[in-house]
Design brief:
alpha+beta; six-stranded mixed beta sheet
């Protein structure tokens, strides 16, 4: 989970100053209507082991992170077209900031991965981008 802070820091450095960068903890309990926008939400989406050494104390894992562009635009609420256009701009900025970046503590650069479908609700557009990254974890053999 140490990559969450690195992702948030990178996005804060690379995105326009008016865009909020939020963790899942920042969003806990926030009602949709009161969430800040424009924003990107950094969400841990799980991991899978790629390789575990024979003694089980070291593993190479692939983590998946979602970065969700969240915008609100109430023009054209029926189709969501205006909100989608705003969100696509922010999504492009996120991808530009993270694709191919090698965070400290990672074994590989971030790679674009399959993401969940976008969502739209009452003027809010959510456009997720998924990234995978490999890391090495160590257990305590004692």
């Amino acid at each position: 989970m140490h990559l969450e802070a690195a992702l948030i820091h990178r996005l804060k450095d690379r995105l326009p100053a008016h865009v909020r960068v939020l963790s899942a903890a920042d969003l806990d309990g926030v009602a949709e209507g009161s969430q800040p926008t424009p924003a990107v939400h950094v969400i841990y989406y799980g991991d899978r082991p790629l390789e575990v050494n024979s003694n089980g104390h070291t593993a190479r894992i692939e983590q998946t992170w979602l970065v969700v562009a969240a915008v609100r635009n109430v023009r054209g609420p029926r189709t969501g077209q205006d909100a989608r256009e705003d969100g696509l701009v922010l999504m492009g900025q996120v991808r530009h900031a993270l694709m191919g970046w090698l965070p400290e503590g990672a074994s590989t650069p971030l790679k674009l991965a399959a993401a969940p479908r976008p969502g739209y609700s009452a003027g809010f557009q959510y456009l997720p981008t998924a990234f995978t990254v490999e890391t090495i974890i160590h257990g305590d053999p004692a």
